[in-house]
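This week, look over our next protein:
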Amino acid sequence: MTRRYSLAHLTALHLDPPALIRAAARAGFDAVGLRLLRVTEDSPGYPLMDDAAALARTRAALAETGLAVQDIEFVKITPETQVQALLPLLDAGAALGARHVITAPYDPDLSRLAATLGALSEAAQERGLSAVLEFFPWTVVPDLASCWRVVQAAGDAVGILPDALHFDRSGSDLALLRALPPQRLPFAHLCDAQVQPSYSTEALLHTARQDRLPPGAGQIDLRGFLDALPPGTPLGLEVPLAGGVMVHDTDGALRTILQAAQRLGG
């Protein structure tokens, strides 16, 4: 089975969506993930839902390259999140042909989190997208087991997005990953990193946002992670590199990351 590789926007967040799509195509990717919402105060988001001209340029780049949009990202679900306010985001995702919308858990009331996620999932499905919840070890849903509980409460159509970095650093269980229903795992994020006995929150955030490694260049058990996923699971390569490497040689860095993943993941 030929595996599908997408370029997660965080890997080259300095590029706007049309530039990211063209760079991904030159490197040999099949798809991209697009960050339409800003995640931190010091990193960009590209709100195509608020800019019809930019949305049109992005769609033109997709048509020109033949690439698809794997996902749009990401919705921080907080106590204040209102699904109605997110409909323009979902509409933009539909216009781009996106498959998934990534959500993140930032509501400490897990019952309310699940309810909001379920409502967002229903709105996404109406537009041809599915909602996935990504877990992070510094949040209220820190690992795969807690993510699985929330997702089950949110509804049958909600998926889980396992990221190799967060999976490893949360001490999540490969046996549980292997046992999950395949339809709950529509895609995964892949990268590598050095492994330490423990991590401060600051270290977790630093590595996640700006200091990952290409697959195979670190110490995470990526073979175990990949083998536990359903066969042929699409992979989003989310590999923000330290030291400005991506900015200085975007094309070369993207080819290196993709080729590393292909050697590891088939």
Residues 5-265 form a domain with the TIM Barrel fold (CATH 3.20.20.150). Residues 65 and 131 are 26 Å apart (CA to CA). The mean pLDDT is 97. The longest strand covers residues 68-77.
